[in-house]
Write a structure and sequence with these properties.
Length: 430
């Protein structure tokens, strides 16, 4: 326990889901990367924990809370445990403690065997019921941390129930640490489910939650009380929940409870999906020049982090066949990496895909005497009102990207293209 003159204005750090030692297979959806590339990325990602430790020191926090899934699996490597312990020892040198719970990936009672003794300043919560530690105390009151660990990798009961029995008068500032799936979240397995009302019912001022990888912070319970998911410390692949900035939440104590948590990025590698519209290119070679321009723009916003991106080429182009061919045979990515190696720097382009559609010279097609020409001329004779009503029906079936565009001219043109594509597709099938 720390004794201080005042706790007002002091902070703690909330992080979760470090998943140290996660398998290389998590990145196998980057099918255009070599095994060497993948190993390099994984090595780079290990720096996120080091960043967390440094953030805690730089902000002179009272303590660090880790809300479960420290390790990705039960058979955590000795080297990983050594690195983890060394980080905690560094915190200890600066008078910073740590409070840790186990999650579904590293349950404390199902085979997890720590090989390294943790510093005395580290408290690991048990599984029987929520336990509470006094973290710091002044004449103003004390700040405490209460938590409970997973005993197995599939906890199904609502663990918030035990927190309701914590003495309400004991702590002026109480932090609750829980690995849980909130009601309505389908992105992860439903473990230790609970609701916002469950959180509100317990005498906890700040709920430091783990398990959900997509950050969800600044959720007020009223009267200076909050609940938050810090998200995972480091993104791991191109899934939507993994592509956002990753890090920890800095939470400050005030006279009435807690300030809204502040996000601090800790990730060393950031995954990103970007779309590049090639509709305006006039020459096929312009595609690569547009690609490098957009990649550099995305890279410049990430400071010193390594960017791993997937690129999807979209839009309409007269060069759609060339683009599709070179994307499918891998030539576009290979040539791009070779031509722009110096400009890319540390950015890794994991893959390039294309959904580029063909474009047509509608004026030329309009002169044809066949079905396409006849259809386009009929469309020309329709009033704007007819275009806006009838074409949207077609849009739903054949060109859904047009929905929402209320400009008659634009809809007329896009509908014409949709009609052409539908006719051509029908001719192919016949």
């Amino acid at each position: 326990m720390i004794t201080l003159m005042s706790l007002i204005g002091r902070s703690f750090l909330h992080a979760s889901d470090l998943h140290l030692g996660f398998p290389l297979g998590e990145l196998k959806d980057c099918d255009q990367l070599s095994d060497e590339d993948l190993k390099f990325i994984v090595k780079e990602m290990q720096g996120a924990f080091d960043n967390l430790i440094q953030v805690a020191i730089d902000n002179n926090v009272l303590f660090v809370v880790l809300a479960g899934d420290i390790y990705d699996n039960l058979d955590s490597q000795d080297a990983l445990q050594a690195d983890f312990r060394n980080g905690l020892l560094k915190l200890e040198e600066h008078g910073i403690g740590a409070y840790i719970i186990h999650g579904n990936h590293d349950p404390s009672l199902k085979g997890y065997k720590p090989r390294r003794e943790l510093p005395a300043t580290v408290k690991v919560f048990g599984t029987a019921e929520p336990h509470e530690f006094i973290a710091a105390q002044t004449d103003e009151g004390m700040v405490s941390v209460a938590g409970i660990s997973f005993g197995s990798n599939a906890v199904t009961e609502n663990l918030t129930v035990g927190f309701r029995n914590l003495p309400r008068e004991n702590a002026k500032w109480r932090v609750g640490v829980l690995h849980t799936s909130m009601a309505g979240n389908s992105a992860h397995d439903t473990y230790a489910p609970c609701s916002v009302e469950d959180l509100r019912a317990a005498p906890v001022g700040y709920w430091a939650l783990g398990h959900i990888h997509l950050r969800n912070d600044s959720n007020s319970l009223g009267d200076g009380r909050w609940w938050a998911y810090s998200g995972n410390l480091q993104g791991r692949n191109f899934k939507p929940a993994e592509c956002h900035p990753k890090g920890a939440l800095l939470v400050t104590l005030n006279r009435n409870g807690f300030d809204a948590p502040q996000f601090i990025a800790c990730d060393t590698v950031r995954f990103q999906n970007i779309q590049i519209d090639v509709s305006e290119i006039n020459e096929f070679d312009d595609c690569s020049r547009l690609l490098i321009k957009e990649v550099i723009k995305a890279s410049n916003s990430l400071e010193n982090r390594r960017l791993v991106m997937r690129v999807e080429l979209i839009g309409r182009s007269f060069f759609h066949k060339e683009i599709r061919t070179q994307v499918e045979n891998g030539k576009m990515r290979t040539d791009f990496l070779g031509d722009f190696a110096s400009e890319l720097g540390s950015t890794i382009v994991a893959g390039i895909t294309s959904t580029v559609k063909p474009t047509y010279d509608l004026n030329e097609l309009r002169q044809e005497q066949g079905l396409i020409g006849t259809t386009l001329r009929i469309l020309d004779q329709m009033s704007d009102e007819e275009v806006l009503t009838e074409s949207k029906k077609l849009v739903v079936a054949a060109a859904s990207e047009c929905i929402g565009d209320d400009d008659a001219v634009a809809i007329r043109e896009r509908t014409a293209m949709a009609l052409v594509e539908a006719i051509l597709e029908g001719n192919k099938k016949s």
